[in-house]
């Protein structure tokens, strides 16, 4: 029964979190609140963190059967993946506007864009020429390597969060296509959404 509650609570959190940034909800809120919509990104971030805390605390109250342990030679693989995650987040932070990410720039300028760049334009250089969403890719990897010991409860949460991130990425892509049109479609055709398959293939062919 506790696992059922865990699944329901995490699924509900993911659903609400995604719904809050869906195109339908965002469009409605923009029309409904006008200039006050500039506070929404900050509000969204705060609510996301506050509602996440009790889920984490509840999940820590039970573990279940041990399914996997990062041990032995797997430790080196975990280290490599951890370095990859750090690289994705750090390189992404150079491309994204952190003020926009936290919702501060929207409050200061009153301008909104699904892109996290200060200008609102598409940046296709650096890590964004490798994967369109380096932070989401980094988050997926981080989820699976964070705990050295994977319990049954950990597996449940990891699967739910991975599916959530992928669905959230697709929803964000939909908004970006609506906002930026053919310019973003061209970017989608050239750079992979998450796993940099096209970049890897291009590098192999260049040798």
Folded structure, characterized:
The protein has 207 residues and is mainly alpha-helical. It has one domain. The protein contains 10 helices and 2 strands, in the order αααβααααβααα. Helix 1 packs parallel to helix 8 (152-180) and helix 7 packs antiparallel against helix 8.
Brief synopsis:
The chain is mostly helical and 207 residues long.
What number of structural domains do the residues give? 1
Q: What is the rounded distance between the termini? A: 55 Å
Order of helices and strands: HHHEHHHHEHHH
Radius of gyration from CA coordinates: 19 Å
Give me the number of helical elements.
Answer: 10
Strand count, sense and closure of the main sheet?
Answer: 2 strands, antiparallel
Average pLDDT confidence is 88
Question: Structural class, from secondary structure content?
Answer: mainly alpha
Regions with pLDDT < 50 over 5+ consecutive residues? none
- Described by the principal axes of the CA atoms, the overall outline is globular
Give the DSSP E fraction (strand runs of 2 or more residues).
under 5%
Tell me the strand order in the biggest sheet: 1-2
Q: Count the beta strands.
A: 2
SSE layout and pairing:
Elements: H1 2-19, H2 23-33, H3 40-59, E1 66-69, H4 74-95, H5 98-102, H6 104-109, H7 134-145, E2 149-151, H8 152-180, H9 182-190, H10 197-206
Antiparallel strand pairs: 1-2
Helix pairs in contact: 1-3, 1-8, 4-7, 7-8
Short descriptors:
207 residues; mainly alpha; 2 strands; 69% helix; 10 helices
């Amino acid at each position: 029964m506790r696992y059922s509650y865990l699944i329901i609570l995490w699924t509900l959190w993911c659903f609400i979190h995604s719904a809050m940034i869906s195109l339908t909800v965002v469009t409605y809120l923009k029309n409904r609140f006008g200039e006050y919509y500039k506070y929404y990104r900050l509000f969204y971030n705060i609510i996301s963190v506050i509602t996440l805390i009790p889920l984490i605390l509840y999940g820590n109250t039970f573990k279940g059967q041990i399914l996997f342990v990062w041990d032995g030679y797997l430790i080196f693989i975990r280290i490599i993946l951890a370095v990859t995650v750090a690289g994705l987040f750090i390189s992404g932070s150079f491309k994204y506007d952190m003020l926009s990410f936290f919702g501060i720039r929207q409050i200061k300028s009153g301008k909104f864009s699904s892109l996290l760049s200060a200008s609102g334009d598409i940046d296709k250089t650096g890590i964004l020429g490798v994967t369109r969403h380096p932070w989401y890719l980094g988050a997926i990897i981080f989820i699976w390597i964070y705990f050295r010991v994977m319990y049954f409860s950990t597996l449940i949460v990891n699967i739910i969060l991975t599916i959530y991130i992928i669905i959230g990425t697709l929803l964000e892509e939909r908004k970006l296509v609506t906002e930026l049109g053919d310019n973003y479609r061209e970017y989608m055709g050239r750079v992979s959404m998450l796993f940099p398959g096209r970049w890897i293939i291009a590098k192999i062919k260049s040798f």
